[in-house]
Design brief:
The complex is a heterodimer of chains A (257) and B (230).
Chain A: E1 4-15, E2 18-29, E3 33-37, H1 44-51, E4 59-64, E5 67-68, E6 71-74, E7 77-80, H2 83-90, E8 93-96, H3 108-118, H4 124-137, H5 153-165, E9 171-175, H6 183-197, E10 203-207, H7 211-217, E11 220-225, E12 228-233, H8 235-240, H9 245-256
Chain B: H1 12-52, H2 57-72, H3 75-85, H4 95-120, H5 124-132, H6 137-167, H7 179-190, H8 194-221
The structure holds adenosine-5'-diphosphate and magnesium ion.
Membrane topology (chain B): Multi-pass membrane protein
Keywords (chain B): Amino-acid transport, Cell membrane, Membrane, Transmembrane, Transmembrane helix, Transport
Transmembrane segments (chain B): 22-51, 193-218
Chain lengths: 257, 230
């Protein structure tokens, strides 16, 4: 049964004269764990940022769970999405940033509960209980009262994951979640993401350079090059038997480096 | 009011002691004008900063023009404008209030810049995280941007507080009895300007030093990472 939750249909994204996504077609099934790999500047982050509505699109249609993200129906026509439409759509997605982007003036607990209380309308008590469960899950029980600067990078990123999950998104977007971390802290964050990948219903889109990890957790790996998917397949197919010369070059460079 | 009695100017020290009470009263007026003007500058400046940052040009452009005009013209023009022009439209305020408003208006053009710089210094990632969590723009501003901007803008705002204090004597031209005006009246009556003016200088120095150290204390006390939200 095919149940598409994310659909990029001939999507073009330009920054001025620079075309970053070039008529991209890209689908993700509900519950699928997809890893995006590719050289720097190939448009990986842009795909996630468009989904998180941090970046608009120039052409084409992006749909989330069957509904256009950057457009809405008005008088029978597809028009540019209003902020109200974006707000409605955004609740389906959560994002984990390379630089964590925690709120430095809020405690760990407040970082996680602010959205559920102020956006979703949960009671403080409920939000707090949810936050404590999530902190437990990411291995940070008892750190709720600390401030971000009192935590290591790995701990901060795990708070970032808990904060995004607290909004109960259908789709989680991870943009190089371990790239800003010291090597010895990468493992603890990947372990949390791997545990999340066990969740059947959660759709995950992960941009990473951790090839071994991508191989373990993904259902599918997409190799991006120049704003298009150059090659995709199961981790087995893509890592052991890449068809495209570009893919082979890229994998060789990453695995050697 | 205070100037009905005679002062003995034969001895500087006795003279100084005898005029100290009325100079201190003038000083209170100066302090009141300073804080009221500063308060107005903080509020108006924030409004100007928000308007100038508005995405719509028909909002941001006039706001930019008004602040530019204010910045490019002397305080005295603003003051005369409020003092002489507004009453023609039926808006009559006491001289003190008019003066404090003029100070606040003048400095709002500067505080708007301080706000702008403080707000722009907030990392892009903070806005993106707020958006990803579906915060409204207003909530992002009040709960994410402003608490982090405040500690950064305190030193610059403190400098403007001191500048406002030093500009208060301008209000004497519209009859506000601030400290320098009092000293001048005393001088006019006694033909001794040296003592009252020196005293005003000394009192000003004390006020400036106190204000500056207060600002420094605040700067060191506020958490650098932003006002913490409990
Ligand atoms: N806001 C922007 N303005 C201009 N160019 C941008 C902007 N964001 C990204 N780009 C450019 O778009 C290209 C793709 O960026 P990105 O999606 O971040 O690549 P990746 O994540 O694959 O490294 C890069 O060349 C980048 O410089
Ligand atoms: Mg990137």
């Amino acid at each position: 049964m095919s149940d598409t939750i994310i659909k990029f249909d001939q999507v073009v994204k330009r920054f001025g004269a620079l075309t970053v996504l070039d008529h991209l077609d890209f689908n993700v099934q509900r519950g699928e764990k997809v890893t995006i790999i590719g050289p720097s500047g190939s448009g990986k982050s842009t795909v996630l940022r468009i989904l998180m509505t941090l970046e608009s699109i120039s052409e084409g249609v992006v749909s989330v769970d069957g509904e256009p993200l950057w457009h809405e129906q008005k008088d029978g026509k597809l028009v540019k999405a209003s902020e109200a439409h974006l707000r409605k759509m955004r609740v389906q997605l959560g994002m984990v940033f390379q630089q964590f982007n925690l709120f430095p003036h809020m405690s760990v607990l407040r970082n996680i509960t602010e959205g559920p209380v102020k956006v979703l309308g949960l009671s403080k008590q409920d939000a707090r209980e949810r936050a404590e469960e999530l902190l437990e899950m990411v291995g940070l029980a008892n750190q709720a009262q600390k401030y971000p600067h009192q935590l290591s990078g790995g701990q901060q990123q795990r708070v970032g994951i808990a904060r995004a999950l607290a909004m109960r998104p259908k789709v989680m977007l991870f943009d190089e979640p371990t790239s800003a971390l010291d090597p010895e802290l990468v493992g603890e964050v990947l372990n949390v993401i791997a545990a999340l990948a066990e969740e059947h219903d959660l759709t995950m889109l992960l941009v990473t350079h951790e090839m071994r990890f991508a191989r373990e957790v993904s259902d599918r790996v997409c190799f991006f090059d120049k704003g298009k998917i150059k090659e995709q397949g199961t981790p087995e197919e893509l890592f052991t038997d890449p068809k495209e010369e570009r893919t082979r070059e890229f994998l060789k460079a990453v695995l050697d480096g | 009011m205070l100037f009905g009695f005679e002062w003995d100017t034969s001895n500087d020290l006795v003279f100084a002691v005898s005029i100290l009470p009325i100079l201190l009263r003038g000083m209170i007026v100066t302090i009141e004008a300073t804080f009221l003007g500063f308060f107005v500058a903080l509020i108006l400046g924030l409004i100007f900063a928000a308007l100038k940052a508005a995405p719509l040009k028909i909002i941001s452009w006039p706001a930019g023009l008004v602040t530019e005009f204010i910045r490019d013209t002397p305080l005295l023009i603003q003051l005369f404008f409020l003092y002489y022009v507004l009453p023609e439209y039926g808006l009559v305020f006491p001289a003190f209030l008019t003066g404090a408003l003029a100070l606040g208006l003048q400095y709002s053009a500067y505080t708007a810049e301080v706000y702008r710089a403080g707000i722009e210094a907030i990392a892009k990632g903070q806005h993106e995280a707020a958006r990803a969590l579906n915060f409204t723009s207003l909530r992002t501003f009040t709960h994410v941007v402003l608490p982090q901007a405040v500690p950064r803008i305190v030193p610059a705002m403190g400098n403007y507080l001191v500048s406002i204090m030093k500009d208060v004597p301008v209000l004497s031209v519209v009859t506000v009895l601030e400290m320098l005006n009092v000293a001048q009246i005393v001088g006019d009556r006694t033909f001794n300007y040296l003592v009252p003016l020196s005293m005003v200088g000394g009192l000003y120095m004390i006020m400036t030093l106190v204000a500056s150290s207060g600002v420094r204390w605040l700067d060191q006390t506020l958490p650098k990472r932003g006002l913490s939200l409990k």
